[in-house]
Amino acid sequence: MPVISSASVASLRTLRDQIVACRRCPRLVAHREAVAQDPPPRFRGQVYWARPLPGFGDAKARLLVVGLAPAAHGGNRTGRMFTGDGSGQWLMEALHAAGFANRPTSAHLRDGLRLRGAYITAPVRCAPPANRPTPEELNACLPFLVREVELLSNVRVVVALGKFGFDAYLRAREIAGRPVPKPRPRFRHGGATRFPDGLRLLASYHPSQQNTFTGKLTRRMLHAVFRRAREILED
């Protein structure tokens, strides 16, 4: 049975507060606030979150999902990762189908969504211009992911959405003092890596519009990754 100490739960809450208060990257701060001031017509009148986003989900999670960064009019608007945009819709459908979420949609903070044995995070916490954080911005934000790796002690499977999240997770794992196989794993959709401590890293293309609109990633492909995660956890 997965367990997590009350101290770890408190530490996750402290980490959340630290993330939300962060203003380390001037370019990201300016961008996240600028898009909130001039949203597209369909979101006019809505109050944007426009702050960094912490991870969310089950503190006892055995599945960790690592994305890239919040979407300017998704998480940056709603205040929760993969919420209020197409990427979130694709991800939540797949998580729900595999039993990791209580509903297949992710629309807003009060939509009743609950993750079951899963936790969602990203290596960059603010919406970056053109969805492209700089190396300096990743370096500034990576300690938050490192701390999540340390605190989420029940994680047995990690699903990395895209090469950016895949590489960032490997870096965070190394910084946290966890073993990484040699030769170093390389990203490919559907790839699976077993670590010396038994953890499995599964790779998937990110459910961005760039991938889903072009057919590079299909719902069937994404669902298969999370079915595999469930099979590993139940083996």
Overview in brief:
This protein has 235 residues and is of the alpha/beta class.
Shape: globular
Radius of gyration: 17 Å
CATH class: Alpha Beta
Number of strands: 6
Number of domains: 1
* Tally of individual helices: 8
Tell me roughly what share of residues is in helical segments.
25-40%
The main sheet comes to: 6 strands, mixed
CATH third-level topology: Uracil-DNA Glycosylase, subunit E
Uncertain stretches of 5 or more adjacent residues: none
| β-sheet strand percentage | 5-15%
Query: How many angstroms does the end-to-end distance come to?
Result: 14 Å
Order of helices and strands: HHEEHHEHEHEEHH
Task: Supply the CATH superfamily name.
Answer: Uracil-DNA glycosylase-like domain
What keywords describe this structure?
235 residues; alpha/beta; 6-stranded mixed β-sheet; 40% helix; Uracil-DNA Glycosylase, subunit E
Describe this structure in words.
- This protein is an alpha/beta fold and 235 residues long.
- The protein has 8 helices and 6 strands; from the N terminus they run ααββααβαβαββαα.
- Strands 1-3-2-4-6-5 form a 6-stranded mixed beta sheet.
- Helix 5 packs across helix 6.
- The longest helix has 17 residues.
